[in-house]
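During the reporting period the student researcher (J.K.) took over the structure-prediction task from the postdoctoral fellow and processed the backlog of single-chain submissions. One of the processed entries is reproduced below for the supervisory committee.
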Amino acid sequence: MGAGLGSRQGLERQYLRRVYSQCTIVRVSVPLALLGLLDREPSHGYDLKRDYDAYFGRGKPLPFGQVYATLARLARDGKVVAGEVEPGAGPDRKRYVITDAGKSEVEAWLAEPIEPEPHLQTTLFVKVVLALMLSRPAEDYLDTQRSAHLQRMRELTELKRSGSFVDALLADHALFHLEADLHWIDTTAARLDALTNVVRS
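J.K. obtained the following structure tokens:
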């Protein structure tokens, strides 16, 4: 009995650490977001920063240093190629082009559902916008995410049924967030045409 209680309390502590630490972590993957923007068209670092800030960096613009450090790592890993320096204003006028390896990574990332959890909308929003920019099936990505959410909600509902009072409270906390996510997914799916017009204008 004591061992079981200790095990359950340990799981509850792990859950709390995981959920509440994730609430404070920026969920956008900057390298993948930049790769997605490059999959749309070759771009200078300045243009990538401008588009990232316009779509994904509301209130928290991406530092130039992070843009170029990320591009350098992507080039090192064979996911982008930097062109020759072009004439013009600014310290770095290289145009970056995504490689086949980079395209494959973007495609795999867009298609993979995010682990259903509170505060995932930032990453999901990035995926939807990039999918629309790249003429990829944003509806399919939303459907995949909806399925992942529903599966997680079934698991949490079972935890409420079979677990302790504390289990039920923790499950309710997660379920309320997931229900809000589902509402956002459905609302966004209904507005994809309007969002498409915005991101492709």
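The committee noted the following: DSSP finds nine helices and three strands in the chain.
J.K. will present the remaining backlog at the next meeting.
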